[in-house]
User: Which sequence fits this backbone?
């Protein structure tokens, strides 16, 4: 339980995108874990890690992922860069005059 609270506290500190309080997150997470048995040993940090990983895998640029995740340092976000398997191929395609990588629209802004 202490590990879970520590992860939630970290989540709340690093994100300007969250408008609910720390204890509300704890209660929601506790309720989710009670209703989904497969999550009984999952901590909030696992969901943050998955969110960051999926953004990189789906081609969202590092800087936007950094902002979304609330990472103070780009170095933290760069730890996920190895998941962007085709990033150099996208550059080559764009330089050769092919289609540039598609932009992902987030909240109506690209």
Assistant:
């Amino acid at each position: 339980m202490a590990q879970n609270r520590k992860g939630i506290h970290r989540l709340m500190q690093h994100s300007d995108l969250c408008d609910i309080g720390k204890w509300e997150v704890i209660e929601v997470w506790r309720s989710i874990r009670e209703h989904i048995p497969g999550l009984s040993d999952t901590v909030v940090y696992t969901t943050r890690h998955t969110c960051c990983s999926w953004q990189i895998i789906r081609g969202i640029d590092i800087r936007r992922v950094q902002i979304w995740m609330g990472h103070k340092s780009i170095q933290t976000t760069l730890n996920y860069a190895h998941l962007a398997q085709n990033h150099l191929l996208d550059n080559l395609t764009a330089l050769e005059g092919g289609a540039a990588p598609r932009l992902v629209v987030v909240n109506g802004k690209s």
